[in-house]
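FAQ
Q: What does a multi-component entry look like?
A: The components come first, one per line:
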Amino acid sequence: GAVVSQHPSWVICKSGTSVKIECRSLDFQATTMFWYRQFPKQSLMLMATSNEGSKATYEQGVEKDKFLINHASLTLSTLTVTSAHPEDSSFYICSARDPGLAGEQYFGPGTRLTVT
Amino acid sequence: QKEVEQDPGPLSVPEGAIVSLNCTYSNSAFQYFMWYRQYSRKGPELLMYTYSSGNKEDGRFTAQVDKSSKYISLFIRDSQPSDSATYLCAPAKAAGNKLTFGGGTRVLVKP
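Then the predicted structure of the entire assembly, as tokens:
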């Protein structure tokens, strides 16, 4: 299957600072990537859809000024959590859409963010 | 009511048994049905997907979709301890569209 990587896998930051998470599709070009967050023992919640070369589409209730998404190339999307607070601590996972007919999504390994 | 519902489990089975997982949904617009496996603290791994109603088999995995009853199933034959994970169903309205995840079913396969 297709491979998607994320960096970093784990990050701790102080309250008020910003953190950038990278998502890369390693063996295919992804015009569309998705960003999710997952709290312990809960399912994935879609935050936004990222399209290469255009603005991201955010889900209802997600602050676009807080969660900045950039999809500058066909293999890289970034999520920046600005002015992070402890309640932003979560597991952030990206996925990349396969350009094939079914458009299935392949997920990265996730980034665990802890804000102190 | 959530759009996609799954029994959270845990579903505990002995090694070698058949694991039967189910998922119901309410949106009749869903056309593509994905199954993902997620190990603790890892990203979901795509197991298989089906389009519309019918069956699909891939190795030890069989997926079934009954659109008339809005019911999705995943069967795992000859289960192994390494199959212990959370299984997520995730339908979509069209190819490449955003997925709507169920809450997941936790499976434990005991040696």
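Q: Is there any commentary attached?
A: Sometimes. For this entry: Chain B touches chain A at residues 32, 34, 36, 41-46, 49, 51, 88, 92, 94-99, 101-104 (CB under 8 Å).
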